[in-house]
Amino acid sequence: MFTEAQKTAIIDNWNDAVYKNLLRSIELYTEKWKLSNLTFLEYYSMNAIFFCKSEPHGDSILKIGCGYQDDEFVSEYNVLSEYGGKKFVKIYEGDIVGAAKAMLLERVSPGTRLIDNLPLDERLAVYSGLYDRLHIEPENPAIYMKYADKLGYYVNYIKGRGDCGELYAHALKAKEIYGAVSEKYDRVALLHGDLHSENIILGSGEYIIIDPQGLAGDPVFEIPRFILNTYYKSIDMPKDALKNSIKHMIHSLEGSLSAPGEIIKQCFYIETVMFECWRASTGGYDVRNVLFADTV
Question: Which of 10, 64, 109, 232 could cross-link to 48 by cystine, CB 3.0-4.6 Å?
């Protein structure tokens, strides 16, 4: 199944137990879901991904959980199940009950990422079109993490670190701003949680959304992730040019999404703070990005 180089990379990036579990899972789901022609996608994140053929469904994607973020894996399955292929990639099969977790997904072709395919203004138009009427009421809100709880988790994490004083001050400020914004924007809808130009891919004539995290909250808190991703992809630009680019995006989205620019700016700050808290949890962060968002 794997080349020696792939085996070594899997063990180095994950561990030997994950490698052995993958072999068992591949055997299990190949038989269970009638799969063939598995090809490993050499992308070592939280899940193992394979291109494959499915006897009943044709070209597919097999995604196997590696045990690092089981809650997010289950949440992704639940989101895709609720949307049933509307604007999102289709899910054909799923197994989320036992220790082994896997999904069989539609393979979107050509699958070009939005960020690689179009200039910024056209990406904004595609994003706005997908965002329009995207956010449904979840069938069972209790199975999804709330946006407020995600923010609270990072505030508490940074507080517990004890070595991120400046970032913690911004985390408290972000929590306060969230409280003010959420007094008006209090809808409980199903959010993607990471909706940006790398999680939007081209299918046969239309763009499709992939890799939802699954959160419950007001759709206004979905908006800044697109801006944030664009910011980090352009972080080497001169700061004045970068700030103008951010302001241009906010102005564009204010018009297309009917969301006040000042609210989008506040949400962008909140999202930047959370992202830098996440970076701190993975080994490094840069508070200058939060300071930049504060100036916006």
Answer: 64
